[in-house]
Amino acid sequence: MSATPGEANPVRAFVAQLWGSVFRHGLPTNDKVAARTALTNFFLHIHPVRVKKSAVRVSYTLCLGGLSFFLFILLTITGLFLMFYYIPSVDSAYQNVKDLQFVAVFGDIIRNMHRWAAHAMVITVWLHMARVFYQGAYKPPREFNWVIGTFLLLITLLLSFSGYLLPWDQLAIWAITVGTNMAKYAPIVGPYTRYLLLGGDQVAQGALIRFYVLHVIALPLIGFLLMVVHFWRVRKDGFTGGL
Amino acid sequence: MALNPYESPRGRMRARAETTRRQFLMIMGGLAAAGASLVGSVKVLGFMFPQASSNAPALFKTSFTFDQLTGGVANGKAVTPVNVLSETDKRVTVVLDDAGIYAVYLVCTHLGCTPNYVTDVTTGSGVSPTVAKGRGARAPNQQLPNGWACPCHGSRYFIDSTNFYGPAPRPMDWVNIEVTPDGFFAVDRAALVATRGPGNNQAPQWRLLISTQKSNGKTLGV
Questions:
Q1: What is the pLDDT, as a whole number, of residue B155?
Q2: Nearest CA to A167 among A202, A221, A115, A219?
């Protein structure tokens, strides 16, 4: 008499149940199951169930938006590691960064990954925008997503700017002095904007903590929310051609 | 005829054109809520503008004394004829020349960096060193082509803080300086004694006199 599979091998049954509790389906064997798998998985459901082969052709567009997002993830993870050592105080910030470089194991690599990924992200976001523009991908029905994209560009630049102050070296202090003085030239709101950013009239402790909060919480959070909308619209509006 | 006056083609048209009491109250209530939110938002934004700032006080005492700058006083004159001492962290420099003492607030008028003291301020600027030597009240044998050079974007100033090269739009400001009872200087960075607009090359006459240790009161532009 043949037993049911569960009775025959309880371990196998447990593994099957475990798999089934996490993934509602087995590995996709045909298009229908593949579609269901994508729909019932939190991480996969953001993507279209079906994508044209031509749409994932990474040719001259190089998937720059995807690269930007990859760099954002990389920056979030490396930034998290940096936060274990960094204290946003004028007395310790510079020394913390030096500790990261010379005391923490792999700290120098983490810091440099963060730095270079930040530079690269500014570049890829710019190129992504240029690609969308030259391909005419901002035209209806994607005009709203273009606007979201410009805000994401702004967030990227503000993240780059706010992160620049945090090492608290001479380059950082004077770059932010210059940058916030530029903001001061704006009519009417200029001086208020500068005070808002610096929390005072000089680049001092008030400025460091404000830039830190903007850099590690406020701007990434806004950026993340905009990205969710951005990707959602990409999924709904479809691809123009290459990624 | 329908009991409801709006239940006719004409009535329905009027109903679309006119505002009912309910709609009117909704609009007024909505406007009131929007206005209250706007005013509230402005006040809430005040959170980011604290009532007291943690800025360093504008008034401070120098680490060097009157005698260190002047070399002492003989016959009502400074023993050291020309001298420049700076408090770089506090962004103030104190200059001694033949007419007396003055303090310059070292904030570049371009974008706010701290210019450095240099003794060859005209090098590479196309301006003759003779011009720089002639600035400031100094005896011919004491004249130097010294001044201020901003490290950020290359603005340059003569010793009397007049800009002559680079993107700086106007001269740096002079601030009030006094001698404290214990012989140091008290510099008040909030009290301007000479401020000049774009293109104003006039040399300020304000000085802290060596003989009396009081200012001559000749302010400029304040």
A1: 95
A2: A115
Q: What is the pLDDT of residues B21-32, one digit of tens each?
A: 898 999 999 999
Superfamily of A53-237 according to CATH: Cytochrome Bc1 Complex; Chain C (1.20.810.10)
Those of residues 17-36 in A touching chain B at CB distance below 8 A are: none
Q: Tens of pLDDT along B4-53?
A: 766 777 777 776 777 788 989 999 999 999 999 999 999 999 998 888 87
Question: Which chain A residues are closer than 8 Å to B112 by Cβ?
Answer: 177-178, 181
From chain B, the residues in CB contact with A178 under 8 A are 111-113, 152-153
Query: Within chain B, which residues score under 70 in pLDDT?
Result: 1-3, 5-6, 15
In sequence order, which residues have a C-beta less than 8 Å from that of residue A208 and are 6 or more positions away?
Answer: A88, A89, A90, A93, A165, A166, A168
Its ipTM equals: 0.75
Looking at chain B, which residue has its C-alpha nearest residue A175?
B152
Residues of A in contact with B53 (CB under 8 A): 199-201, 206
CATH 2.102.10.10 at B59-194, yes or no: yes
Q: Is A191 on the interface with B (CB under 8 A)?
A: no
Q: Considering CB atoms only, which of B54, B151, B153 is closest to A200?
A: B54
- In A200-229, the residues whose Cβ lies within 8 Å of chain B are 200-202, 204-206
Instruction: Please provide residue A215's backbone torsions phi and psi, each rounded to the nearest 5 degrees.
Output: -70, -40
Q: Give the residue-averaged pLDDT of A10-14.
A: 89
Q: Exposed e or buried b for every residue in A36-64, given b needs 16+ CB within 10 A? A: ebbeeeeeeeeeeeeeeeeeeeeeebebb
The dihedral over CA atoms of B72, B75, B79, B85, expressed in degrees to the nearest 10, equals 60
Which regions of chain A carry the CATH code 1.20.810.10?
53-237
Please spell the DSSP secondary structure of B123-174, one letter per residue: TTTTS-HHHHHHSSS--GGG----EEE-TTT--EEETTS-EEESS--SPPPE
Q: What is this structure's pTM?
A: 0.81
Whole-number Å distance between alpha carbons of A208 and B48: 14
